[in-house]
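Q: Structure tokens for this one, please.
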Amino acid sequence: MKPRQSPHLLVCFLMSTAVALATELMPRLTFRKGDSSRIVFSFQRKGVQNYDTFLLSKDGATLYVGARDTIIALDLGSADSIRLKGEIPWSPTPVKKDECVFKKKSNETECFNFIRVLVQLNETHLYTCGTYAFSPTCTYIDLENFTLVTDANGEPLLLEGKGLCPFDPQHQNTAIVVDGELYTGTRNNFQGNEAIITRTLGRRTVLKTDTWLHGDATFVASFNIPTPSDDDKVYFFFGETAKEFDFFEKLIVSRVARVCKNDVGGDKVLQKKWTTFLKAQLSCTQPGQFPYTVIQHVFALPQPGGGAVFYGVFASQWQSGNLGSTAVCAFSLDGIKKAFDGKYKELNKDCSRWMTYNGPVMDPRPGRCSVGPSSDKALTFMKDHYLMDEKIEPAHHQPLLVKHSVKYTRITVHQTRNAFGVPYNVLFLGTDKGALHKAVAVGKEAHIIEEIQLFEKPEVVQNLLLSPEKGILYVGYSTGVLQVPLANCSIYTTCANCVLARDPYCAWDGRECRDIRGATENVSDLVQNIETGKPDPVCQRNHGKGRALPRSRNDSDGSLLKILAAPLNTMVRLPCLRASALANYSWNYPERKMADGLVMEDDQALVVIVQKDTLGIYECRANENGYWQTVARYHVRLVDGFRVDREGLTAPMGEHRSYWGQFVTVTVLLSMTLAVVAAVAFFTYHDKLKAKSKVQGCSSFPEASKTSGPEKVPLNGSQSPPPSSEYQVPGPCQEGANSSKACCVQVGGPCQDIDADNNRLDPGLANGDDSRGALAVEGI
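A: Here is the predicted structure, written as tokens:
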């Protein structure tokens, strides 16, 4: 049974999508791969792929990376490079690889050891697990010499990893160490249809979930959030197919589950199982849009006073192609606790439907950390009432950011302070096409500051890890690790652009836009506006040579003016670089009326045909957030040595003389002459061909009598005109009476040709027009 969708629902979806696209959030700036304004340092190791799992050391000096068949330690001591510190090869044994192939898995892509768990167990050891050719395996890493711990025989100490690491490298998982114990969420079997949350490695009983998770549960993150009054819970974020909805065959929902650290399982009920497990639904919806139900990743941002805000990336189950979109929703820890303290859902076995439980409330309340292992009644209730009835709504009951035609894969958040000490949260989002978006949360919405294209060819951003102390973001991808600085304030060369960027890291100090993180000097003179991003009136004061771009058309400092000299009747292109995708651009022309077609707008430029009327100053102006500024100025003029007279013609000046006008004139006249000669030659040749069928000769008669009128002689008549002294046929026509040649006669008019059949060849006379007195006669 497929989800029921009506045509009206589809129409509403398409309409809402069109409206959303019309109000699309755009990155203000976009930096292409290799742009010097946004330098990105990279690390790659030949033969090593899939840099998927990150772990930052407690001192922030080393980044541990779990890749395919390899574990790497990277030295982060330099801000402009990444250096290899150590490397551990860890591949499956040949026997395990053969078993993997026997299970019909690919020896080219799957039968490797993909590192999926990499955590710091204590001060001296790391704990790691890998897929190990579809045979999950774990081991320890000695940090002193960065090697695998070995057994008595000197072989790597390999431990069973089932329930801690997925079999399939395509399945997501999560792992976290709390008080020396490992909490994991993963798939528990080879088929990948059994999801499980476990606790291991401690001295206490190993615990796992019962049947409270759907088999396709996909884990994305896990956290332990210390709070002043409640720090004894571990939270898991995942997505799964919902059982409580019967109007969809397979509806995916996003969840958060929690367990208590002091849980030891039950004595009689739920032995070796969690006795404090509860889960609730996360809601990330936008009015007029399909809900964003598929969770992609979550980042927990601890708050100064305790607690945390969870920033999650969500996609829609119904998106397809370019119509897809991603939303970022923020959830407070208090909102999550409120849902877990609310009502339960229960399965009504009579109608097989999940309904709200309205029965009596037990004491102690099931799911609380105070429930003991011997509370059989509470544990029995909890076994069937593990799903909460209330949905967890995001802050402000709406997404913080919605981006269409983009799929975010990872998120990390940094809380910083602006020039006046106000805290702002900066979001870093990786996409499935290899881009990094940097955004700032302002109230209920977010502003995308910039986009950085990380790779030459699109590929998925696999991981993000933030080092706030170093001001560096580390990006994991298929063949390496990237090191991206959090900001480069020097790209904003004016006060206006520095303020319009709305970057909490950057402020204008009167001379330049600089990074203010860690600034201790007096910041009262710094110019910054994160809330609205409006430069007026703060940038109207005198802030030194790099002040806001002048509004005057005269551009008194001349910093923008570029002179373009070109010959007459040539075309020049005036580019206007779109420095901000949020601005509207327009051109100011010289103050004179110009004929149509002399100036044409071409995408991001203006094309001008150099004429008398098009010479002068051209300005490209940008309007962003209500602020106008000139971003390009050009003075189009003739090349040196030319001037324009009153008739619009060029004339030489001084010793510099050009013959361009004469050259054009001679070229045109020569072309016309050649055309006339060609036409004459053609018609001459045509007449010669025509004359081959004619009698060559011509006779003239004296002018006809004015009183006799025109002669009426048929063209092919058998009679000849009567003899008269007025008619004389001189020349060849008088040579013999038996002559068969045709001849022409002229009677008061032009000579006319007569063919051998006594037909007049003049087209007008052939049609009976004898007004000129021409007469056709037979040969004599």
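A few notes: The longest strand covers residues 627-638. The chain has seven helices and 43 strands.
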